[in-house]
Amino acid sequence: MHRGLRIPSDIDILICAGDVISDFSEEGLKDFLSWYSNVPARLRIFVPGNHEILFDYYPDKLNRLFPDNIVCLYDRRMEYKGISFYSISCKSLRNSFHSDIQSPVPEYTDILITHFPSQGILDDNDGIRKLKDWVEESRPAYHLFGHIHSQGEKMYDLLSIHCINVSYFMKLKNERNISFGVVTFKHLLEQYDFEEILQPFLKLWRYNAPELAKRLDLNKWRKIYQSIQAIQEEPSDYYIKLVCRWESCTPMIDMNCSVYSKADNLRDCPMANYHSWAEILGMDILIDEDVEITPLELTAGLLWEITYYGGTEEMSHENQKRIFNLKE
User: Fold this and answer.
1) What does the pLDDT look like over 282-315, one tens digit per residue?
2) pLDDT (tens digit per residue) in 209-265
3) Is residue 266 predicted with pLDDT exceeding 60?
4) Angle in degrees, 0-180, between the axes of helices 218-229 and 295-306, rounded to the nearest 10
5) CA–CA distance, 233 with 229 (Å, rounded to integer)
6) Which of 15, 28, 257, 279: CA 20 to 30 A from 51?
């Protein structure tokens, strides 16, 4: 979802307060860092959130993922052009719940960055009391945080401290829902050619079948995509529901992308097993609110799903009959 952010090109300092991935995976973090490192800025700071919980267990390994132009600020101080920054990690804040740990925030800190909010400050009753004590004691000019997405882009003045919830999740989610509207696979196929969805499609292959990905015949897949584009969609009494992304998913096991009945909203089968490709192209697509995916990624994922058992509808049916010992 971060790719939906519109960031001005004349920024000096970018600060991210965490929750950049939805699946807690190393691959998701790599994808974010690749994007973040290319956003124009003189300084890019990243403070892990609770979705980046892997930092609690493998900090050295994850720190090696960071390119040189991104600073991972984790329980430490840094200074840039006379501005002092300090971060308190989620792990340290959790450890403070039942202890008498004194404030770790240095004197004369300009910007304090945490993922969690202070108690009573844009926190939806989920803030940390000890953090509020530390903020009041250290008096930074700014306290930046996130975590409570419903309070994103709001500011509250505590004494002389500007407390800002910097989450953009709800804004990006609402914009994504508006941009998707009611969408069908046919609509997506009409929007993008094969070259436009190639990178997310290759990413799925490299993630789910790395050995096969090395031998992909892209000309063959271009023709498969074009042949699916040429299918005329047909009306259906079913819709498609996506409950998670395709990384590490197998249709019959994970059932992340399935066909549901409009009559009773009951699941019928994985999309890959549905009998009519023409109907699939005409089905409305419902995306669970927790799924972060772009239209290009969605198109690539649907291509992965519909061709899971074969590159044509006939081949798919024949392979399913063989695999599942189906009879006419």
Assistant:
1) 999 998 877 888 889 999 999 999 999 999 999 9
2) 999 999 999 999 999 999 999 999 999 999 999 998 898 677 666 689 999 999 999
3) yes
4) 100
5) 10
6) 257
Would the pLDDT of 184 be above 70?
Answer: yes
Residue 270 structure tokens: 């994985």
What pLDDT is stored for residue 98 in this prediction?
76
Provide the edge-to-edge strand list for the sheet that holds 267-270: 183-184, 284-287, 238-242, 257-261, 267-270
Tokens of 81: 């052009």
14 φ/ψ sector (left φ>0, alpha ψ -120 to 50, else beta): beta
Give the per-residue SS3 of the chain: CHHHCCCCCCCCEEEECCCCCCCCCHHHHHHHHHHHCCCCCCEEEECCCHHHHHHHCCHHHHHCCCCCCCEECCCCEEEECCEEEEEECHHHHHHCCCCCCCCCCCCCCCEEEECCCECCCCCCCCCEHHHHHHHHHHCCCEEEECCCHHHCCEEEEECCEEEEECCCHHHHHHHHHHHHCCEEHHHHHHHCCHHHHHHHHHHHHHHHCHHHHCCCCHHHHHHHHHHHHCCCCCCCCEEEEECCCCCCCCHHHHCCEEEEECCCCCEEEEHHHCCCHHHHHHCEEEECCCCCCCHHHHHHHHHHHHCCCCCCHHHHHHHHHHHHCCCC
Residue type, 201: F
What is the pLDDT, as a whole number, of residue 182? 64
Whether the Cβ atoms of residue 119 and residue 133 lie closer than 8 Å to each other? no
Distance of alpha carbon 290 from alpha carbon 177, whole angstroms: 12
Segment 31-48, tens digit of pLDDT: 899 999 999 999 999 999
